[in-house]
Amino acid sequence: LGIHLEMYTRLKDDIGLVTKSIKKGTKLVDGKLIIDEIKEKEDEDKDDEDVTMGVLHQVAEQVTSMLKFTVDFPTNHKEGKMPILDLKVKLNQDLNSRIEFEFYKKPTKNPMLILVD
Questions:
Q1: Residue 59 gets which letter from DSSP?
Q2: Alpha-carbon distance 110 to 21, whole Å?
Q3: How far apart are CA 49 and CA 47, in angstroms?
Q4: Radius of gyration of the chain (CA)
Q5: How far apart are CA 7 and CA 16, in angstroms?
Q6: What are phi and psi of 15, to 5 degrees?
Q7: What would the pLDDT profile of 40-87 be if each residue is shown by its tens digit?
Q8: Higher local confidence (pLDDT), 37 or 84
Q9: Whose CA is closest to 87, among 99, 78, 95, 70?
């Protein structure tokens, strides 16, 4: 497909990746990425991350019908940092695409643990 991943990580069912933005108007048709004028107009007001992850979601969903994928990206979050496992991660474009991170604790409804002997 010509999508170059700068970074790919996976832990169980969580996948993290870094790639360059995919051009607005791109969509997957018959296993190939094409530029569509109608899709280009639909993508005008979308962030590059939203467009790129939308295309990657299309690709992932075609792998098998047994798996369902969700996508998330930094601009979905007010701090611009992506929660991944126990970290918040951001790609700093101003510092040569340096990956910045900080500890993150997911909010839980019940913080109780069940101990096993």
A1: H
A2: 38
A3: 5
A4: 17
A5: 8
A6: -120, 135
A7: 999 999 999 999 999 999 999 988 889 888 899 888 888 889 888 888
A8: 37
A9: 99
- Res 94 pLDDT > 80: yes
Q: What gap in Å lies between CA 90 and CA 101, rounded to an integer? A: 6
Residue 45 CB contacts under 8 Å (≥ 6 apart), including other chains: none
Residue type, 89: V
Quickly tell me which residue has 């979905």 as its tokens: 76
With vertex at residue 53, the alpha carbon angle to CA 2 and CA 46, rounded to the nearest 5 degrees, is 115
Q: Cα(44)–Cα(24) distance, rounded to whole angstroms?
A: 7
Residue 84 tokens read as: 């991944």
Cα 67 to chain centroid, rounded: 16
